[in-house]
Amino acid sequence: MDSAVNSAVGQALVLQQAQTAQQAQMQVFKEALDTQKDQVTALMESATADPQLASSGNLGTLINTYA
């Protein structure tokens, strides 16, 4: 009976360690997804921004020639 209890405790500890490792992996995965979301959002915002005309000089003050 003592070995059955030891075995059950051992299995419980192994499962607890596996769960802790899985939680850590999920946290890293969520952080990676958040970083990617922020990068995609910044990229989309920069792609939709209207290009500005130059404020001085001979080029680009009437027509955006830098786009």
Automatic annotation (TrEMBL):
Pfam families on file: YjfB_motility
InterPro entries: YjfB_motility
Protein name: Motility protein
